[in-house]
Amino acid sequence: MPGLNGQKVTAVMVTWNSAGTLSGLLDSLLADGAVSEIIAVDNASTDGTRELIKEKYPAVRLIENPVNTGFAAGANSGIRLASGSLIFLVNPDISFAPGFIGSLSRALLEDGGTGA
To answer: What is the pTM for the complete model shown?
Structure first.
């Protein structure tokens, strides 16, 4: 996946029974040229979330937890695996306007005192 001026941007999402909503997010992340890595941490979904990611989004790195570890533990496990210099923690029920991640990433990279 592409990056942003040589910088890797990673998006980490935690899922649990999110098959009905996550396509909007993943489609928007994959369409944004700034995102170079997507990690999905699934907390033991039973609604086809894992299968959807595997079948429709093979570029997404899927971590399959055998039990629901909760949001914070799931997020931390995804962050530990991230290779980006910028990491965005995103929810599976949102989507981004085209170019949003790139714009936000540039702002963070241009001003070292900025963070979120």
So the answer is: 0.92
